[in-house]
C-alpha cells in the first residue's frame, strides 16, 4: 500500500540522482551527454549525407560528370539543372557547361548518388552552409560543387576505396578489350589474302526460296 | 476528486454570461505543430471543439503522382517525421504488393528491427511531450530524448540521416547492417528496459500524473471502433486490434509478443499502453536480433532499378498495404496504369483519422484537459495535413 505522495517522492529521487550524476559521472552512466556544438563536435559518421558535390580526378578540368542528365531527371524535387557543353563546331562534349544545384530545394535524399552511372555525384558531409542571402549563396554552381577525389576519400573512405577499385577494374577491362581488339585487327591484317585469281571458289549457297 | 464536470452541471442561473470562442493554435506549443482547436467555452468547460487542420498541407499525394515510384520514398519520410522508417515500410509494402515482389529474409528482419526501433522513439517522445503538456516542463522530454538520441545515432550510421532516413527500397533495404551495428542495436535494446524502469518510477505512480490523467478524455470502445480509430488510442480503450497480429505482414508472425490493452480508455491508459508496447517492442527486437539470418538484402528483380528508378513500371493494378505504425494504421493505396508514375497514390494517415474523435473526448472537460487529450492522441502535423 502506498501512502499519498510516495510516487512523487520516488520520482523526485530519480531527478535527484540524475542531478548528482551530471556532476560526477560520464555520459555513458547517466551523466551529461550534451555536446556544446560550435566548440565541440561529434565524430562524423561515414554514411552521413548532406547536399551533393561533384567529384573530379586530379585536376578540376577532369571531372567525372558527362552531363547525361540522369540525376536531374531522377531528383525528386528537381533541384539539379544541367546544360551540356558544346565545342566550336557545335558538337556536344561529354561534360557540363552549367551544373547548378539549388540548396533551398534539395532535400538531401541521396537519390542522385544512387542513380549516377559514372560515380560523379556524391553526398557531402558539409552541413554548415547557412547564409544570410538566398539567391547567390544557396545556389551552388559548378565551381562551388567541384571537390576532389581525395576529399571524397577523406570523408567516406570505405565507399571511395570500393568505387576506385571498381573504376580501376573497369578501366583495366576496357584497356584489355581495346588491346584484344587491336591484336585482332593486326592479326586480320597479317593473314594471307584469300582468293587468288584462277582458283575456284565454292558458290554461295542459294537462299531458300520462300513460297 | 476525479469527478469530471459536464456543461450541464454548471449552474448559470442568475449570471449574465455568454459562451466564449477561443482559438487554441495554430501557433501554440501545445498543439504540436500548426494545428488549431476552435473551442467554444462555457467558463472553463468545453462546449464545442472543432479541429482545424490544413496549415501544413504540402500536396504530397499529387506530387507523388507526378514522379517515379521510388522518388516518393524520401517524401514519405516527411509524413510522420518521427517515424520515417515505418512510413518507408508502409510504402515499400504497398508497391511490393502491386509489383508482386519477394523480399529477401534478411531484409525483412532488418525492416522489422527498424520499425520497432522507430516505435521506441515515437512512444518515448510522445510520453515526454504529453508530460510537457501536463506541465512537467522538459524533464521527462529530455530523459526521453537522451535515449532517443542513441537510436537516432544508429539510424544516422546506417541510412545517412537521423530523421529523414530514406532507407528502405522496393524489394529490400538500401544498405546492409554490419555486425558492429547489430551489436550497437543490441546494446540499446539491453539498456532500454533499465531506462524504462527509471522512467516509470518517475511517472507511472506519480500522484499528480494520476490525478490529471485518470478518467480524463475517456473514449468508449464502441465509439473508437465506429470512428475507425487505430493504434495505441484504440488499444487503450480495450479493443484488441494490432495490425502486426491481424495482418501478420513482413515477418511479424514469427515473433512472440503480446498486445497490451487498456481497461478504461482515458489519458492514463494511453500513457501506460505506450509504455507496455515499448516493452513488447523490446521483446520483438530481442528475438529479431537473435534470429536474423545472413543473406541478400535486395530482391534480384529490383537490383537493376536501383540505378534507374524511372524504368520501374509495376503492372496495371491497384494495391493497398498497411502497417502498424506507432500512431496506428498507416496505409498506402497505389494504383498503377503501367507507366513509371502511379496513377493514384493515397495515404491513410493514422493521426489524421484519430483526430476526428477529438471533440467527443473533450466535451465537458476543462481547457487544460483538452490540451493533454490532444497530447495523448499523438499527432504529427506532417502526417495530418500531408
Quick summary:
The complex is a heterodimer of chains A (211) and B (386). Chain A is α+β, with helices and mostly antiparallel strands.
Largest sheet of chain A, described in full? 3 strands, mixed
Mean of residue pLDDT values of chain A: 82
CATH fold category name of the domain at 50-163 in chain A = Alpha-Beta Plaits
Alpha-beta classification of chain B: alpha+beta
Pattern of helices and strands of chain A: HEHEEHEEHEHH
Globally, the shape of chain A reads elongated
Beta strands of chain A, count: 6
Which blocks of ≥5 consecutive residues of chain B have pLDDT under 50?
A: none
Instruction: State Rg of chain B.
Output: 22 Å
Low-confidence stretches of chain A: none
Computed Rg of chain A: 31 Å
Describe the biggest sheet of chain B? 3 strands, antiparallel
Q: What's the CATH architecture name of the domain at 50-163 in chain A?
A: 2-Layer Sandwich
Determine the number of helices of chain B (DSSP H or I, runs of at least 4 residues): 16
**Helix and strand succession of chain B?**
EEEEEHHHHHEEHHHHHHHEEEHHHH
Overview of the molecule:
The complex is a heterodimer of chains A (211) and B (386). Chain A has helices at 6-24, 70-74, 111-115, 142-145, 149-155, 157-190, and strands at 52-56, 80-86, 92-102, 121-123, 139-140, 146-148. In chain A, helix 5 (149-155) packs across helix 6. In chain A, a hairpin with a 5-residue loop joins strand 2 (80-86) and strand 3 (92-102). Chain A has a domain at 50-163: 2-Layer Sandwich (Alpha-Beta Plaits), CATH 3.30.70. A 3-stranded mixed sheet of chain A has the order 4-1-6. Chain A is built from 6 helices and 6 strands, in the order H-E-H-E-E-H-E-E-H-E-H-H. Chain A is α+β, with helices and mostly antiparallel strands. Chain A is elongated. The two termini of chain B are 41 Å apart. In chain B, helix 4 packs antiparallel against helix 15 (367-377) and helix 6 (179-203) runs antiparallel to helix 11. Chain B has 16 helices and 10 strands. Chain B is an alpha+beta fold. In chain B, a hairpin with a 2-residue loop joins strand 4 and strand 5. In chain B, the strands form 4 sheets. Chain B has a 3-stranded antiparallel sheet. Chain B has a 3-stranded antiparallel sheet with strand order 8-9-10. Chain B has a two-stranded antiparallel ribbon with strand order 2-3. At the A-B interface, helix 1, helix 2 and helix 3 of A face helix 2, helix 5, helix 6 and helix 7 of B.
Amino acid at each position: 500500500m502506498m501512502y499519498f505522495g510516495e510516487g512523487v517522492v520516488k520520482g523526485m529521487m530519480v531527478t535527484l540522482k540524475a542531478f548528482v550524476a551530471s556532476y560526477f559521472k560520464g555520459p555513458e552512466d547517466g551523466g551529461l551527454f550534451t555536446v556544446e556544438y560550435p566548440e565541440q563536435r561529434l565524430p562524423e559518421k561515414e554514411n552521413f549525407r548532406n547536399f551533393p558535390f561533384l567529384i573530379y580526378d586530379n585536376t578540376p578540368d577532369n571531372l567525372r560528370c558527362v552531363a547525361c542528365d540522369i540525376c536531374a531527371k531522377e531528383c525528386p524535387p528537381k533541384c539539379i539543372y544541367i546544360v551540356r557543353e558544346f565545342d566550336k563546331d557545335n558538337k556536344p562534349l561529354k561534360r557540363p557547361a552549367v551544373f547548378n544545384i539549388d540548396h533551398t530545394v534539395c532535400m538531401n535524399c541521396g537519390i542522385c548518388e544512387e542513380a549516377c552511372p559514372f560515380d560523379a555525384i556524391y553526398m557531402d558531409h558539409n552541413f554548415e552552409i547557412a547564409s544570410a542571402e538566398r539567391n547567390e549563396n544557396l545556389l551552388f554552381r559548378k565551381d562551388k560543387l567541384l571537390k576532389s577525389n581525395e576529399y571524397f576519400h577523406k570523408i567516406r573512405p570505405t565507399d571511395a576505396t570500393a568505387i576506385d577499385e571498381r573504376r580501376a577494374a573497369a578501366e583495366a577491362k576496357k584497356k584489355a578489350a581495346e588491346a584484344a581488339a587491336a591484336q585482332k585487327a593486326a592479326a586480320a591484317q597479317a593473314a594471307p589474302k584469300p582468293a587468288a585469281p584462277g582458283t575456284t571458289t565454292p558458290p554461295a549457297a542459294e537462299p531458300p526460296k520462300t513460297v | 476528486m476525479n469527478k469530471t464536470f459536464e456543461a450541464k452541471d454548471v449552474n448559470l442561473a442568475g449570471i449574465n454570461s455568454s459562451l466564449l470562442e477561443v482559438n487554441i493554435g495554430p501557433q501554440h506549443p501545445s498543439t504540436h505543430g500548426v494545428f488549431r482547436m476552435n473551442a467554444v467555452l462555457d467558463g472553463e468547460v468545453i462546449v464545442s471543439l472543432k479541429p482545424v487542420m490544413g496549415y501544413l498541407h504540402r500536396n504530397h499525394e499529387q506530387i507523388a503522382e507526378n514522379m517515379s515510384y521510388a522518388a516518393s520514398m524520401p517524401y514519405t519520410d516527411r509524413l510522420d517525421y518521427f517515424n520515417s522508417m515505418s512510413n518507408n515500410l508502409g510504402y515499400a509494402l504497398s508497391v511490393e504488393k502491386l509489383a508482386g515482389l519477394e523480399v529477401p529474409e534478411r531484409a525483412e528482419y532488418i525492416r522489422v528491427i527498424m520499425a520497432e526501433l522507430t516505435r521506441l522513439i515515437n512512444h518515448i517522445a510522445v510520453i515526454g511531450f504529453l508530460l510537457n503538456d501536463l506541465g512537467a516542463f522538459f524533464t521527462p522530454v529530455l530523459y526521453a530524448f537522451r535515449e532517443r538520441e542513441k537510436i537516432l545515432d544508429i539510424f544516422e550510421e546506417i541510412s545517412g540521416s537521423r530523421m529523414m532516413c530514406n532507407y528502405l527500397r522496393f524489394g529490400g533495404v538500401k544498405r546492409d547492417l554490419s555486425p558492429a551495428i547489430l551489436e550497437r542495436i543490441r546494446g540499446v535494446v539491453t539498456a532500454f528496459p533499465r531506462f524504462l524502469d527509471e522512467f516509470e518510477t518517475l511517472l507511472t505512480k506519480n500522484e499528480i500524473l494520476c490525478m490529471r490523467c485518470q478518467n480524463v478524455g475517456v473514449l468508449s470502445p464502441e465509439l473508437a471502433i465506429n470512428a475507425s480509430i487505430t493504434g495505441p488510442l484504440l488499444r487503450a480503450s480495450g479493443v484488441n486490434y494490432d495490425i502486426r497480429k491481424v495482418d501478420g505482414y513482413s515477418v511479424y508472425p514469427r515473433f512472440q509478443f503480446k498486445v497490451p490493452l487498456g481497461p478504461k480508455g482515458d489519458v492514463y491508459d494511453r500513457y501506460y499502453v505506450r509504455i507496455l508496447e515499448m516493452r513488447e517492442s523490446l521483446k520483438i527486437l530481442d528475438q529479431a536480433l537473435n534470429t536474423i539470418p545472413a543473406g541478400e538484402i535486395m530482391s534480384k528483380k529490383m537490383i537493376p532499378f536501383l540505378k534507374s528508378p524511372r524504368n520501374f513500371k509495376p503492372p496495371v493494378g491497384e494495391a493497398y498495404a498497411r502497417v502498424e505504425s506507432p500512431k496506428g494504421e498507416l496505409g498506402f493505396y497505389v494504383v498503377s496504369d503501367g507507366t513509371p508514375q502511379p496513377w493514384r497514390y493515397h495515404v491513410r494517415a493514422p493521426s489524421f483519422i484519430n483526430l476526428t474523435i477529438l471533440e467527443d473526448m473533450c466535451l465537458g472537460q476543462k481547457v487544460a484537459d483538452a490540451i493533454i487529450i490532444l497530447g495523448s492522441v499523438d499527432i504529427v502535423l506532417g502526417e495530418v495535413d500531408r
